[in-house]
Specification:
Rossmann fold; six-stranded parallel β-sheet; alpha/beta; 24% strand
């Protein structure tokens, strides 16, 4: 069973600080800015001010490569209990970028944290259709105690990854989650730090 160490989760920079400098700013994305200015008009920011996004970090790349050694098209990301809002979505975004860079093809994210019972069958059918079409899909889920559809969706995926939050996840919740979903469905677990 796969077990990975602590990975630092970081939300992408979505609203960079506005520039007080004048000039023709062509692009500002993530950590790189392409700016056309005359020499001496500004100082370049310190590179330490822009940490590497997760998909450029060796620990995320190692996690992706470990997951890639397993046979799956759909992978459920399951927290062991209550987690911060967007936790599994943050994990999925890091893995999608890492995997897309590695494979050179897009990977889908399906947010199933709030799938209700009336929509369960339709969601699983769509997941199966994407699998049959050859797509890779990371399925973001909530805790099994918070949503009755988490276990069936995780079981419908090819495999699952138990996503633990450092200093937040509890062993009892992890055991209950593995029992509810079924240990055979899990590739392993990974611990993430906020």
């Amino acid at each position: 069973m796969l077990c990975v160490g602590v990975l630092e989760s970081q939300a992408p920079i979505s609203n960079p600080r506005p520039s007080s400098l004048r000039g023709n700013e062509l692009a500002l994305t993530g950590q790189h800015a392409l700016v056309v200015r005359r020499e001496g008009e500004f100082e370049l920011p310190d590179e330490a001010a822009f940490p590497l996004p997760p998909w450029h970090r060796p620990e995320w790349q190692n996690l992706w490569l470990a997951l890639e050694r397993q046979d799956w098209r759909t992978l459920a990301l399951v927290p062991p209990g209550p987690s911060r809002p967007g936790f599994t979505l943050d994990v999925a975004v890091g893995l999608v970028h890492t995997g897309s860079v590695h494979l050179g093809v897009p990977i889908r994210i399906a947010d199933a944290v709030d799938i209700s019972l009336p929509h369960l069958r339709q969601f699983i059918q769509e997941l199966n259709s994407l699998r049959e079409a050859g797509d890779r899909v990371l399925v973001c889920l909530g805790g099994v105690r918070n949503n009755s559809t988490t276990a069936p969706i995780a079981q419908a995926a090819d495999r699952a990854l138990l996503c633990l939050e450092l200093n937040q996840s509890k062993l009892a919740d992890a055991k209950a989650t593995m029992k509810a979903v079924g240990q055979k469905h899990f590739l392993g677990s990974a611990v993430f730090q906020k």
